[in-house]
Model the fold of this input.
Amino acid sequence: MISRITLFLLLLTSLLLSSCGKKEVNAPAPPEIKFITSIEKDVPVRHEWVGQTLGAEDIEVRARVDGFISGVYFTEGTQVSQGALLYIIDTPDLRQRVAEAEGSLTAARTMLVQAESDVLRYTPLAEKGAVSARQLEIAVATRDARLGDVESAEASLKLAKINLGYASITAPISGIIGITNFKIGDYVSKLTTGPLNTVSNVDPILVRFSISEQEYLALVKRYMEKTKNPSISREESKSILEMILADGSTYNYTGSINVLQRQIDPSTGTLMLQGTFPNPEKVIRPGQYAKIRTIVNVLKNAVVIPTKCIFDLQGLSQAYVVNAQGLTEIRTLKVITKIGQLAVIESGIKANEKVISEGILKVKPGIPVKPVDESAGLDSLIIKEGLK
Done:
């Protein structure tokens, strides 16, 4: 009886095992990932520096006489023309000096007329012997002295009028005038008072910025290489500057370097440069901070991929690539530089390889994937970052 039960259990176990062995195991579907095809192109490398704007001419308006301001004849922050009246300083002492000089000139001229009359009267009498030659000589000397007095009085009157003219302050150049530092009724002095105002010519606008000694040497080498190439024109050999404004926008006009400081600043190890930009709409004003950007090098036939394809692992830059068999490979990259949302690759990825851009967490090395091409996004990034 026991042997029959044992036999039954063995048959039942074998049936169960055979039925289990007939079940099929379904393999998981390959994960769907997005990829971007790496491209090869010439990539300009740009550097940026922070600079500050100033007018082509920033002329301070200062008092040249002492007195109280009695008139202000401009609208602050507007355009003024050269020679336009800006301030009047009340100077009664200077007006008095002009009056005194005019009186002295009148007296000198009167004495001159009398002396000339004496010469005219004594000349015929001396010829007839009615008066001595000595008297005629004295009359002539007196006339010459009176003539000198007139010339001296005229010079004194001219100087007095010049000094009085300093009481009327005019615009030294055409440009935009700032907010006045002194109002009507304020006392100003030519020796102790600071500038009354400043007039700026802002077209063109200048920008000063500093670069490191190493950057300076690199720019010089690039300039020399370009000027030695006969296929490059003189204009092309100049460094074209772009100005990035405080709101992140790029200024409509490009500029060029027009001044290099004569020496490196030993305290900072930098060299000051000055660029000039057209400013016909007078949008840029002196004192603004702006970024100056220019191309310092061009990487020929560089491999470019989006930065989102790259991830860091233990200090190494890595990316996944879909190989020709449709399997994933992990690559360790050497990144030359990053330009916005793009990365320039020196090694690890070649041109025309499928680099995984989305779905990296779904994959591991050596597995099949279902790739979806989104390379069109790379073209838009290239345009956005100015590499087109």
About this structure: The chain has four domains: 32-45+299-384, 47-55+200-296, 63-91+167-194, 92-165. The CA atoms of residues 242 and 254 lie 5 Å apart. The radius of gyration is 44 Å.
